[in-house]
Amino acid sequence: MTVSDLDRLHSQLSRLEDMFPGYLTEIVEGSIVMNPVKPFHGRSIQRLWTILEEQLPSGWALVSDVAFPFDDANEFCPDIAVIPVEAEAENRSDYSPDLIELVAEVVSPSSVRRDYDLKPRWYAARGIANYLLLDPLQGQAVTMWNPGPEGYRGRDTLAYGAALTVDSPLGTLKIPTDRLPVDPAAQPR
């Protein structure tokens, strides 16, 4: 795909999101995927953003719902990605996934397989140091680290309520999971 092809595709995806408010759009395994967003999803992102923003060292910035093309068939729009502040200042609609130091996704009913199985393999294969998964459907947080070509070698799951500590190249990040919303129909695993 050429740069102009990517620009056209981004423009078309942006129009889709405009036509269907309340949906996030990304390309996964060559298919355009539109996910409905529920209030718990948005609140989880907002709260995590606030928590992380207070702890990030200088030189790093948070971005949300911008495209990271991994290949022609996979372009993810993470709920939150930490990238260098210089890159964020470019104010682009897409960035190289090689810029991501930490990525966070919030699970929605339609994204369970992608968030738990597919994206960790892509993120780890690209060398993204930490993957944080917030799951308001299960009332749990999953942190993954030690990326390798087949996925993350380290993984911890913590029920919401306790403080989650993420040791990352950005420093030690503390996330009070008791501040994160839980779906009233949550079913702990």
Q: Which features would summarize this protein structure in a list?
A:
alpha+beta, 189 residues, 37% strand, 4 helices, 6-stranded mixed β-sheet, two-stranded antiparallel sheet
Q: What can you see in these coordinates?
A:
It is a single chain. The protein is an alpha+beta fold. Helices cover 26% and strands 37% of the residues. Strand 1 (23-28) and strand 2 (31-36) form a beta hairpin. The radius of gyration is 16 Å and the shape is globular.
How far apart the termini lie comes to: 41 Å
Determine the strand fraction and express it as a percent band.
Answer: 35-45%
Count of DSSP strands: 12
- Spell out the helices and strands N to C: HEEHEEEEHEHEEEEE
Low-confidence stretches: none
- Global mean pLDDT: 86
The biggest beta sheet, please? 6 strands, mixed
Q: What gross morphology would you assign?
A: globular
How many helices? The count is: 4
What radius of gyration results from the CA coordinates?
16 Å
Strand arrangement within the widest β-sheet reads 3-6-7-8-9-10
Helix content: 25-40%
